[in-house]
Amino acid sequence: MEHVDVAVIGAGPAGSSAATWAARSGARVALFEKSTQGRDKSCGDGLTPRAVAELRRLGVDISRFHRIDGLRVQAGTKEREVLWPDGAFPNMGAVAPRAEFDALVLQTALDAGAQLHEHSVAEPVIERGRVIGVQVGSEVTRADLVVVASGAGSPAAKMLGATRVEGSPFGLAIRAYVPSTKADDRHMEACLTVKGPDGALVPGYGWVFPAGNGIVNVGVGALSTMRNFSQLNLNTMLDSYMAQVGRAWGLGEPVARPKAWRLPMHVENRSGPGWVAVGDAAGLVNPFNGEGIDYALESGRHAAELFAINPGTVHAAYDALLAKEYDPFFATARRFAWVIGRPRLLQFLLGIALSTGFTMELVLDIMANLIDSEHRSLAGVLLAGGGRVMSVFDPILQRSQESGTSDIRAKIEASR
Ligand SMILES: Cc1cc2nc3c(=O)[nH]c(=O)nc-3n(C[C@H](O)[C@H](O)[C@H](O)COP(=O)(O)OP(=O)(O)OC[C@H]3O[C@@H](n4cnc5c(N)ncnc54)[C@H](O)[C@@H]3O)c2cc1C
């Protein structure tokens, strides 16, 4: 039976980050990935300045990917373009197709000394209430810490209680790679008012992220707080959005079948004796924009650093860190998800927000994941204040969420 210090389930950004940092601190790391050959995660491929900062820290060179200088936000007839600000994070983003990006981050983990096992982990192994390793086929690998980095809705995470908090918002999103005459554009475009074939607003958020090689990543996402979420058809929404932006972007036909997946935003247990969950498995996706690569990279690092400090206290220390550094922002964002779920109200508020440079900067801070408890900006302070006011309405907001979980798999399957 193999015995390692850290076993990591999943080699997405969260798992590869955890494996890299743990291996660099001298730990013996076994990294399990079920689909290294041709893995292509459904994603917008957008790297925020926050993600770029974390990749620099990790030592990953992303210069091969298309550089992004700022964000363009559309709401109804209003449109605003802003450059990433100089500040706590680099003033650049990028669009990094996941098949290539994930391979690059995985290679960083292997270079650091992590051992890759190209196998699916059947389940974490539990002894006397503590996770003591992972089971692959009939083999058990024992580990002092199991890092669950297996993404959204994975059985391994569910088994340990890292399940969606009932009544909390979650998202579904779909993306397509599409030829475009404007693939060299240096702005990510986000549209907060997606229209249906009849021109009426449909609940959802659309994006076009230029990848720089003749291709753009086009997608739409929807939150469970949106009206009619249970009737949502991601393919139809994507078609509508592509029709809406097709001319401006010179879009052709998708090069492959669009792919959908879920966006977890709040899970019950993120750690326990012998294990921690990181990235999507811990529900770390921003409800404002569906972005989570940055949080995945960061949470992987936190888990590894806390393990290096004290393997005995890692799970409690990790939970405390998430509670302090991430939960306040995520709690506020989940409250605002209720507003995002009402397209007309959202359009009205965005109309105001997009009308001045000052308010637009607030939108940018939120949309670019520039806010956290460490980097206090005016947008962060205003958002936190708004969140506190809205917390009074928590019971009403929770009742207004559609449960709609039963047919998630059907929606995703229908989009494959
Ligand atoms: C359509 C869409 C668009 C998005 N756009 C963006 C965006 O533009 N920018 C952004 O920052 N975020 C975006 N996100 C969110 C982002 O994709 C996730 O937050 C991010 O991938 C989380 O990384 P992760 O490592 O936690 O999980 P994942 O990337 O899902 O990686 C999990 C890994 O675990 C492996 N695995 C699972 N189970 C097992 C097992 N039992 N054994 C072994 N291996 C296993 C999987 O194969 C996978 O490789 C988007 C999401 C969606 C659905």
From TrEMBL:
InterPro entries the UniProt entry points to: FAD-bd, FAD/NAD-bd_sf, Geranylgeranyl_Rdtase_fam, Geranylgeranyl_reductase
A molecular function GO annotation: FAD binding
Species annotation: freshwater metagenome
FAD-binding domain location: 4-298
Name of the protein: Unannotated protein
A Pfam family hit: FAD_binding_3
